[in-house]
Amino acid sequence: MITMEAVALAVFLFTYGLIMSERIHRTVAAMFGAAVVMMLKVVPWEKLPEYLDLDTIFLLAGMMIIVNTARNSGLFEYLAIKTAKLAKGSPIRVLLLFSVVTALVSSFLDNVTTVLLLTPMLLYISRLMEINPMPFLLSEIFASNIGGAATLIGDPPNIMIGSAAKLSFMDFILNMSPIAFIDLLVSIVLIYFIYRGALKVDERDREKINRTLERLDEKAAIKDLALFRKSIATIGLVVVLFFLHDRLGVEPAVVALFGASFILLWSREKPEEVLEKVEWATLFFFGGLFIIVGGLVETGFIGQLANWITSHIVGEGEALIAIAWFSAFASAIIDNIPFTATMIPLIKAMGGSLNIYPLWWALSLGACLGGNGTAIGASANVVVIGIAEREGVKITFGDFLKVGMFIMMATVAIGVGLLWIRYVWW
Amino acid sequence: MSIYSSLIQRKFKHIAGKRYERILKEYREFLLTEEEMVLPEIGSILMPIDRYVREIPKDLYDTLSAYDATILLVYIIDSQVFSIIRQTLSKEASEEFKRKEELNGEKMLGKIAKELENLGLRTQRRLFFGNKSEDVIKIANNYEMLAISKAYGSEITKSSPLSPVVLKIIQHLEIPTIVY
Questions:
Q1: Is B38 an interface residue toward A (CB < 8 Å)?
Q2: Nearest to A176 by CA among A404, A392, A361
Q3: What is the average per-residue pLDDT within A255-279?
């Protein structure tokens, strides 16, 4: 048994190393790790359904189908142009509006798609204004990670936590959305104060910029008006169903799959083309990770670690603070998806001696907001920095760390404070 | 390339894949290029109108306001139509046509001029008898830009969304033209 435990741990650490270095695709790393664990029978075949979290995988797949179908209509480009026009050439308005739109879209759709679609527009506006795009880009990253923390479907760690702890969409709305809302306002204000010198455009230039932006035609972005309307209606319906899924007694994954099949049926988009764009690599990455972490659970390693932690922690308050901060710093360094996948069985195992309900929120808070700490902390960060670099805007690790770590500490502290008041002090 | 840079690029490639190139391509279709962002120096704009031009879109006013230009608004009463009415119906009918056209012309010129002046543009107005295509082509040679409605000169339909008069005018001109 000790050998099996060592094998599971070695595979886990090796896979983590490969994921961090990104020398090979993270999906390949996770699949290879899972294959080794299964070949060596650390996780027996019959236990596979137990560890493979189908709720998470199907929820992600359903949302990917909805987003990919909606994307064909030009909905997101329309939103980006409309937001740019609303800013009326004012850098502060750009900062505020794009941050709010990013947070809002990220809370319901995936962060990577959101920033992929909004970053080109932000860079375009910065070029028009002839100002440093850094404050806009950083604020977009922070807003995306904060927005993702607000709902069950906003960020993969939340999907995984919701599925494992059987938390509903409304539970997330009641616990995480108020925190995310306050954190978003704080992060925008902080960015404004850090970069207020760079966010200036004189009145004459502002008029000129506004006129150029007014010449952009958001309607030209709509490639298919009927699909555009159907996409808005379907996304609206899916959001309503997410709010009601607990009352209806259906899993969030069922709502996402219903939405996916509904939009395919209504729009008559070719399923082959839509399914081709589903990020299968991400889904296999999740599958592989669940099996690798399953190996740690199966061999008892997670149980022993949980016992060790609970023996050193006194009460929920201490556990809440420890988990939130540990998750935040860990997620700033390593991918928050494998981290959450590891922490979930650990928190479950702590359930014997502690009330673990508040700990799920601490994990969600740390895993989602920790991503703001470093340039490689979350996928949204990498995508925005990668796009910026391709467009000639360099955001160094140090540039990001100075602001990111500060924002991370402030937002996690606010979140921990609110959770502590609610679950410990109250 | 630094370790950080190559790590970001590797991660970017793995996360975003080819999606970014696709998005960028789509954006390029409706975002203005650096060249397009620079407004050409336009000092005079010709804007012919007639009874077929029912409404000037708000977007056109916004676009015209981007130029520091004098706009000549012309309303041409079709002299050929006037003659046909005189010959086929009666002198009274042709005078009635002229009176109605002049009334409509003054009203339209006044309304559009007011909108343009509210945006800080200088305007001039002319109302005369003439040929809607020939006269516009002749006058336009002294102007730097033409702004013309798709319906100028005749009714448009779904199957024929551009008036033949407009088609003829734009085929004869070399100045920048906005067809709204």
A1: no
A2: A361
A3: 91
Does the structure show a pLDDT above 80 at A212? no
ipTM for the complex?
Answer: 0.81
* CB contact B3 to A (< 8 Å): no
Q: Is the pLDDT of residue B28 over 90?
A: no
Closest CA to A183 of A409, A7, A348, A359: A409
Average pLDDT across chain B, whole number: 87
Give me the pLDDT at residue B136, please.
Answer: 93
Q: Is B177 helix (H, G, I), strand (E, B) or coil?
A: strand
In single-letter form, the type of residue at position A410 comes to A
Mutate to test the interface with B, among A21, A23, A110, A383 (most CBs of B within 10 A): A383
Q: Enter the pTM of the model.
A: 0.76
Q: Which pLDDT score, from 0 to 100, does residue B1 have?
A: 62
Amino acid sitting at position B111: K
DSSP B72-110: EEEEEEEHHHHHHHHHHT-HHHHHHHHHHHHHHHHHHHH
- Residue B26 has its nearest CB partner, among A77, A211, A375, at A77
Contact A136, A126 (CB under 8 A): yes
CA distance A153 to A60: 8
Give the Cα separation of A295 and A298 in Å (integer): 5
pLDDT score for A367: 95
